[in-house]
Amino acid sequence: MMTPFEPFKRKEFTFGERHAYIFYPKGEPNGKMVLKTEYLAAFPFFDVAMLERGYHLIFIEHQNRWASDDEIEIMAEFVRHCAKELGTNEKCIFEGMSCGGLQATKLAEMYPELCAVLYLDAPVLNILSMAGLGECKHEAVDQFWREIVATYDVDRSSITAFRESPIDHMDVLIDNNIPVFLLYGNADDVVLFAENGMILEKFYRKHGGTIKAVSKSCGGHHPHCLEDPTPIIEFVEQYV
Q1: Which of 33, 38, 34, 36 is nearest to 67 (CA)?
Q2: Cα–chain center distance at 235
Q3: Are the C-beta atoms of 180 and 212 separated by less than 8 Å?
Q4: Which of 231, 235, 229, 234 is nearest to 48 (CA)?
Q5: Is beta strand 115-121 parallel, antiparallel or unpaired with respect to 180-185?
Q6: What percent of the chain is modeled with pLDDT above 70?
């Protein structure tokens, strides 16, 4: 699991009864952090590049991937803890892939003072879509539904009134001037762009927010990131 990060010194510890990591840059630290919210070892091109540029990379495991409030609160405490331990700025880059995008965006909405910029990669932003109430027909929808029920204690009737998705609170992102780099595959059949990322993109453009959306032609849900993450790095480094 840790192979992509073997060249970098790391600290493993327990925080809030969850397994956590801090990865240290090889060279002189620049006083800034990247929080990867989920799937630590997956598609690490951006993470490795940022470590090489002097950033600390921080990560905490979750008891569920659907961004329940208690998990988001623990994550905010974790960011503050790492900033204090490392002597870095609390305001950092949030990186979220798939359900990690759900976590990153909800964290930014609940604790905007901790977020300098969002890098969202095929992000889940609409839990109703993932619960099968939209056009997604992927075989994984049944599993998603069971996990959402376990996380939010909903059923087929009460889910229709659910308003805890990031798309329900996008005004907070605009009000706090949080820039967004949005990467997606235009053939993603798991996290449908039209029901997730597109809603955020349209809202940002309508309300004058700062967003760069990059579509991967014929791209599915995987792979995430870009093998050459330069466009992502150039965007996020404007805001940290």
Answers
A1: 38
A2: 16
A3: yes
A4: 229
A5: parallel
A6: 99
Q: How far apart are CA 85 and CA 111, in angstroms?
A: 19
Closest residue by Cα to residue 45 from 102, 93, 5, 1: 5
Q: Tally Cβ neighbours within 10 Å of residue 199.
A: 18
| pLDDT-derived band at 2, boundaries 50, 70, 90 | low
**In the block, which residue shows the tokens 């993932």?**
130
Structure tokens at 137: 């027909």
SS3 of residue 239 by DSSP: coil
pLDDT band for 26, please (50, 70, 90 cuts).
Answer: confident
Report percent pLDDT > 90 for the chain: 86
The whole-model pTM stands at 0.95
Helix axes 69-86, 99-110, angle to 10 degrees: 80
**Residue ranges of domains in the chain, CATH in brackets:** 3-127+167-236 (3.40.50.1820)
Q: State the number of CA atoms in the 13 A half-sphere of 18 facing the CB.
A: 18
